Amino acid sequence: KLTVNKVADFLARFAPVELAEDWDNVGLLVGDVAACVERLMTCLTITPPVVKEAVERRADLIVAHHPLPFRALKKLTCETTAGRMLLDLIAAGIAVYSPHTGFDSAAEGINQRLARGLGLGDIAPLVPLEHATDSNTLGAGRWGQLDEPVSLVQFTRRVKEFLAIENLQIVGEDDKQITKAAVACGAAGEFLEPARAAGCDCLLVGETNFHTCLEAQATSVALVLPGHYASERFAVESLAGVLAEQFSLPEGGGVEIWPSTAECDPIRWV
């Protein structure tokens, strides 16, 4: 039978915990390692609608990119949103595993998938992992070379098509030529300087602050900002497929694995 521990062991190899940032909270966060897993749901973030879906569909395990809990808790009560969700999950016997920044930086992680999906070649980490045996695949962020230069507007069309979105934000002139580009999913403004140092013309990040946008403008690095949700959600959908392939069991004993249908981007452009 498939157990929480077997899924956790696979995820710890697929999205190595040693790649996670020091401030992060990754791994099995809620649940019994010996519990049986017959239904597994992936999601970007655990929210009240996601919890409702998991309970109604009798999930045994949620693989959530963003950790819950993220920071240490001194109390676990219904007085906070996080507390209510955790208590509901625990009452329903639903375990929670978060790969988070380990998945961001993994060899087949979010940033690798972003870079490949946008047509970058010779892909390498923006910030290689120290003491890595293979610095070409391990580390944070990614950068690479386009087959041929494209304008910033043309590059944004690629982004929209790959992420299946209609809107995004940019910093830079429409006709700026992009030859080398970098990607860093989520809130990732700190990757601007590594991208500039690598000679990149453009950096895609999920989101960043106003002052990072000003610094990008001042240093002639274009920014493409599709939103935190869009920059990562596609990958947790792919992760459901990876897990389904890994844990396909003989006929009659299959595990139901699906990406949450209840979660959505809380931010809308109007």
Keywords summarizing the entry:
270 residues; alpha/beta; six-stranded mixed beta sheet
Notes on the structure:
With 270 residues, this protein is α/β, with parallel strands linked by helices. Helix content is 34%, strand content 23%. The protein is built from nine helices and 13 strands. The strands form three sheets. It has a six-stranded mixed sheet, sandwiched between helices. It has a five-stranded mixed sheet with strand order 1-4-3-2-13. Strands 6-7 form a two-stranded antiparallel sheet. Strand 10, helix 7 and strand 11 (202-207) form a beta-alpha-beta unit. Helix 2 (48-56) packs parallel to helix 3 (81-91). The longest helix is centred in the C-terminal third of the chain and has 19 residues, at 228-246. The protein is globular and about 55 Å long. The mean pLDDT is 93.
Summarize this structure briefly.
This protein is of the alpha/beta class and 270 residues long. 34% of the residues lie in helices and 23% in strands.
SSE diagram, text form:
Blueprint: H1 4-14, E1 27-30, E2 39-43, H2 48-56, E3 61-64, H3 81-91, E4 95-98, H4 100-105, H5 110-117, E5 121-124, E6 127-128, E7 139-140, E8 142-151, H6 152-163, E9 169-171, E10 177-187, H7 192-197, E11 202-207, H8 210-218, E12 222-225, H9 228-246, E13 256-259
Parallel strand pairs: 2-3, 2-13, 3-4, 10-11, 11-12
Antiparallel strand pairs: 1-4, 5-8, 6-7, 8-10, 9-12
Helix pairs in contact: 2-3
